Amino acid sequence: MFKKLKTAVIASTIMMSLALTTLTMTPTAQAEEVIGAGQVLERTLPNGSKARYFLYVPQSATPHPPLFVTVHGISRNAREHATLFAPFAEKYGVVVLAPLFPAQTYGHYQRLGQVSSMERADQVLQDLVDEVGKLTGAQTDRFFLFGYSGGGQFTHRYAMLHPDRVKAYAVGAAGWYTFPDLQRRYPRGLKPSKSMPDLQTVPQRFLAIPATVLVGERDTHPGTALRKTSKVNSQQGTSRFERGQHWVAAMRQAAQEQGVTGSFNFVSLPKCAHSFRRCMQRGDMGEAVFDHLFGSQADSLHTDRFSKN
Question: What is the model's pTM?
Answer without folding.
Answer: 0.85
